[in-house]
Structures are given as C-alpha cells and as structure tokens.
Fold this protein.
Amino acid sequence: MSSLIELQQLKFSWRPDTPVLDIDQLQIAAGEKLFLHGPSGCGKSTLLNLMAGIHQPGSGRIVVDGCDLSELSAAARDRFRADHIGLIFQQFNLLPYLSVQENVLLPCHFSALRQERACLHYGTAEAAALALLASLGLAALIDKPVTDLSIGQQQRVAAARALIGNPRIIIADEPTSSLDSDNRAGFIKLLIEECDQHGITLLFVSHDRELTKHFTRVVDLQQLNRAGDRG
Amino acid sequence: MKLILNLVYKSLLNRRMTALMIICSIAVSVALLLGVEKVRHGAKQSFSSTIAGTDLIVGARSGSVQLLLYSVFRIGNATNNVSWESYQDIASNPKVAWSIPFSLGDSHRGYRVLGTTGAYFEHYRYGNKRPLTFSQGVPFEQLHDVVLGAEVAKKLGYQLGDQVVIAHGVGSTSFSKHKDQPFTISGILAATGTPVDRTLHVSLQAIEAIHVDWQSGAYIPGSGGTTPLEERDLQPHQITAFLLGLKSKMATFQLQRYISNYRAEPLQAVLPGVALQELWGMIGIAENALLLISGFVVLSGLFTMLTVLLTGLNERRRELAILRSVGCRPLQMLLLLVIETGLLTLLGIILGMVLLYSGLALGLPLLEQWYGLQLSLSLPQFAELKLLLLVLLAGTLTGLIPGYRAYRYSLADGMTVRI
C-alpha cells in the first residue's frame, strides 16, 4: 500500500543552530489510525503544523496525498489544508457566536471541494452536518448556541466539523485531554468509527499512553526526532 | 465574501457592548465634525447675505473692511463723514439708479440708530435679494417716527406707538440723552437675521432735529435758537456713508474709480461682495481652527476604535486560529478585520448623522434666537459628504492595522494558540 503521508530528511528550526525537528523518515499509510506521543516540548505541535502546511520545513520533503507541500505556495497550502485536512484542537474548538450547525458547516464555506463531497453523499451540506451530528449523538443540539454545550459535546461537534466533506486526513491535537476517562474512550471510539466509515486517515497526538490500545500504530516522536537527542 | 460578512456580523453581535461603544465614540466625533461644518457654512452664508443688491458702498476714505463694518454691520465708528453736497452730486450721477444715505452716531440702549430716507425700505436688500418687510406698522412719516428692527422690538419689548428716547453716542449706558425729543414707534420690521434687526431707523431730518441744541458734543438748551423745529430747514450737512444701486452693473468699476478720484473730498467706494470676502478672510482663521479641532476629535475617535480592536484582538487569537484551521486564508483574515472596522465606522457615521440632525431639529430655533445664526436642516452638502467619505475611508483603513496583526498572528500561531 502506498503511503498517504511521507516525511523524508525533514529538518525544521525556528532559529539557526537550534533544530526543533530532525526526522529521517516517517510514512503513514492511507486509512491508518496513528497514535503519536511524546512529552511536551518534543516538537509535536511543530510536526502537526508542518503536516498541515502552516509552516515550511527548513529542508527535506513532506508529501501528503502525492503532493509535495514544500513546493506549494502559501496560498496553495492554505487551499490544500482546507480541502484535505480536518483539525481538532485540545479545547475551545468552536466559534462562540455561531450555532452548532454553523460551526460544523464552516469548512464547506472555505473549501468548494468539501462542500461538493458533503453534497455528494447527503444532497446538501446541511444534511451532511445533520447526519454527522446524529451519528455522534448530537442531533438534539443542532440549533443550540455552542456556549450551552458541555466540553465533551463541544469536542464531538469539533469532530463533526473535521469530518464533514470527507477530508483525507484528520489531525487531532490532544482532543481528549480535557475530558474525563469515560468520555475520552467514547470520543475516541466514535472518532475512529467515523474515520473508518469514510476512509479517513487519523493522526492522533497525545501524551496519554493509555489511549494507545485504540490505534493501529503507535509512534514515539521522541525516538523519531533526532533533534531532541542533542538538546 | 458573503461568509466573511456573516462572520463579521455575528462576531460583532457577540461583542455588541464593545462594538456599541466604538460606534458611539465615532458617532459623537462625526456629529461634532458635521456640526462644526454646518455652523461654519451657516455662519458664512448668513454673513455673506448681510447685504445684497447694492453695487457700491461709499464713505470717507479709510479701509474697505472698516467702511463695511461701520456702515453695514454697525460696528465701530466712521473716521470721517461725507458732505451732503458730495452725496447729492454722486447720487445724481446718470449711472446711479438709487441711493440710500446713512447717518450713524446715536444709539438706544446699545442698539444703533440709523438716520436714512424712505429709499432704505424701498431699495435695501439682504440674503437672496430679499427686500425689507414690515411685520407691523409703516415707515417713518412724522419727524419723530422710528422704525425698529425685529430684535430691538423683541428684546426691549416695544409695541407700536411706544415712546423711545435716543441717546447721544453709541455706548449702551450713555448719560447724555435726547430726552427733549422722544420718538414714537411707527413700524417694526420683520426679522432678517442681519444687523438690520438690531437697528432703529429714523429720518435724516430727525437726526438733525435732535442735535439742534448740541454744540461741540454737549447739550446746551436753547443754544440752537428758538425757532420751532417745524419751521427749520433740517437739511443735513453731512452723512456717514451711502449705498448706491447702479442702472447697469457694467458701470460699477467706472463709478468706483470716479468716486475714488473725487476732487471735492477724499472718498472711497467699495464693492460689498469684495469687502465681505476680505472681512471673512480675516475671521475665517478662527473658523478653520474650529474645523481642525473637530478633525482631531474624529482622529481620536478612530484611535479609540483602534485601541479597542487591538486590545480585543489578543482575546480573539483563538477565534482566528479556529478560522485558520478550517481553511480561512490570512488575507481573508485581514479582510475580515478591515470590513469590521469599515462597518463600525459606517454605523458610527449613520448614528452621528442621526444625532446631529435630531440635535439640530431641536436646537435650531434656539440658535436662531440667541445667535441669529440661521442654519438649514438641509441634506448634507457635497463638501460634507466628502468629509464623511474621508472619515469612512480613514476608519476602514484603520482596520488594516489590527488586520495586519491578525494576519501575522495567524501565520505565526498556526494551529496552536498561545494564550
């Protein structure tokens, strides 16, 4: 199976002489559910920003879905991210002044491709949002202001937003760290189910090693990142 | 684009308290700016409409502004008089259609008394060539008749038929009065918004009559002889100034040159429009200072907006990061903030206009009553619209500053937000 994400000789540093990331090679296959862990400060966030095309590597290649991000312009990387990558943060994922449904629909407004794919399966993007929210157990909350939601509910809305319009990859940056252990397992199970159903590759970042059992593969960034050894 | 507008709208609604404060601060500064502009325009308008239809003002040689001040505005005094013979000679020039003699120097409780002839009520024009009209009564007919300006009658509470004693000199508390010859009010003029409202009008003969027993500025009863006034020749010997209307405008400069070179005595003729311009040029400095100050008020309004938005931006970094993660490009982020400031400025301008116009609607009668300032509730003029457009542009461009910071934030922060 060809790899969906491929990193080669990747080097990144904010300042010369103090490299943050130095990764020889990392390949992630399509459909994989990858668990990436490591202590804070080991470059997890930087790696996510590189894979999402926010930052450019100092040297090396990042190929995502056959597309070399280091060769794209900033605007092209923005478009690529909007089209192919769904993101979930640790907390405060939602815009407080939009309703649940409006929050879920945001990626469709910024990416014509995701709007199109959402419509392909459900007719309209709104129907797609409703279906996703229903499968995440949130159908009753669709018109609620997001400020009325619990943190667990907010994270599931964020998952629905990342999932809408079937991106190729979902990057989740410690999305469960503010949840209690029951909610945590439920959230991960739902997320993985949805990713499986839509053929989405999941890149899950956490320092909580207990969660590794849900994933198909576990990567320790500290071992992978050669920059950390020197510091 | 529709999405951005929707986001701006909902985001602002979410921060409506702050947004309202920004709008109010801009509204107040815009109302002030427009108000100053309106007062400026109104002042200039009512100033330049003080006198109309007159082709030349003639008086003793001094300065054109001074001549305008004492003859039309009734401020200050003439340095010298014009002899009756010169007046007669020039008034009978074939190019002259009409003339109005002015004899000034006396007053009534601070209001100037003007000695003139019936030609004054016939030919004097103000504003858009409007003639003087009587709200009550008729022009002076008897020797001791007086016609009051609107303000004189209103402020001093005079009615038709009341008796008025004229004081010698122009101070408001003159001790030497022409008590021996009281005047009877024969008419009251309608308000004009010009110095005419603050003038008492009597005939030239009346001016002569009340000064019969005066010698070298002092009242000495009987010094003028015992002949009854009715039998005296009350032909004035000199007047203060006179207005000329010409048969043809083409002759204006010719006659002006003729008067300036008049042999018998040093005279001067000025074109009212030119002299008004000159005078406005002098007092216009204060008016420009006023405009400058209100300009700074607008600037401070914009700075308030900038401060509030920049402060708020730090709290909105999360919002910006979320937008970025769902595919909002940094340039769209910039646009978001520019539209936001533009919208706030626009709403501020609209509210400012509402404030100003409702304030004007309430305050216009007072302004007119207290300051004689006649403003119209007209729609904004082109110059005012230009000012408003400038404010809108400045406000929108102000958005570039927080916009640029949002742009930088979203580039630097990426997906991870440091709070």
Remarks:
- Chain A touches chain B at residues 45, 48-49, 52, 54-55, 74-75, 78-79, 81-83, 87, 89, 92-98, 106-107, 109-111, 161, 171, 173 (CB under 8 Å).
